[in-house]
Prior knowledge:
Rossmann fold; alpha/beta; six-stranded parallel β-sheet; six-stranded mixed β-sheet; 11 helices
Amino acid sequence: MCRWQSALALGCLVTIAGCSGAKDEPDPAQAAAAESKLKVALLTPSPISDAGWSAMAYEGLKAVEKELGAEVRNQEAKSAQIPDAMRSYAQKGFRIVFGHGYEYNEPSIRVAKDFPETVFVSSSGGHTADNVGAFRFALEEGFFLAGIAAAKLSKSGAVGMVGGDDVPSIRSTFKAFAAGARSVNPEIKVREVFTGSGSDSAAAKRATLQLIEEGADCIIHQANAAAKGVFDACDEKGVMAFGANSDQNSVSPAIVASAVIVAGPAFLELAREVQSGNYKGRIQLMQMGSGAIDFVWNPLWTDRIPAEVLDLIAKSKADISAAKLSVPMDEF
């Protein structure tokens, strides 16, 4: 090779190496932005497509993504999967791991000790630590109003409740529903059935048909994704149903109204506290008075609801919001 060809080849190699090195070098500003971006994970006991409990939490997660530009992830996790999922997200640098249910509180306490930079929050539960807290959504307030409505609308004098997993938070809402019903009709018959599953729609439908056979003509649920079975049975038999957790009024023509958790504001408040470094583990009671709980009539039914029932619910709702009417809630 002649001298000028050697010089040209050497120059090309230097140029290529220099370009390659510049391309691989990370942008410090971009790296810092990625490092500081809030990362939030949501664990749910059922698919976020359940139009109820898990869907409501996912709406809260998406509010955090939209308002704060956070990186968000969600995963269905049950039983033994829960601590593994929590550890996985904490190891990936997620600042918040939210477990949507009573069953996530205990694992949070165990896992949080190893990840002090991650905040673990469950919906329901009584255990807290510096980086462990819980939202206590007072859904009992919505269920109390549903109980009043059910007792007023029932023609048979019997109402029913279908539960999936038998956990304290669900039992507490059922007690509130029964209390609401008996507050306007002390003689009302209130029956409950637990299937043991929040995903078995067939079992939920059988349980609902059993209650209807026993005379119930107004039925509410806490069955997560299995609620479809409840609504199908009510629709087939021509009895009234009540939605729970999310506004489920559009899910089935049998649904008269829904007892609703409004998760967005609570999720945003939590995320902002964590982002600012001011979060301290505690139990936060989220009630109707602060807009976290609602009772929503199905517009397709309002023309068929007697005016005195609409007025009674409106007054009771206002009294609950103003803390003039007390609703029973279990501690757990």
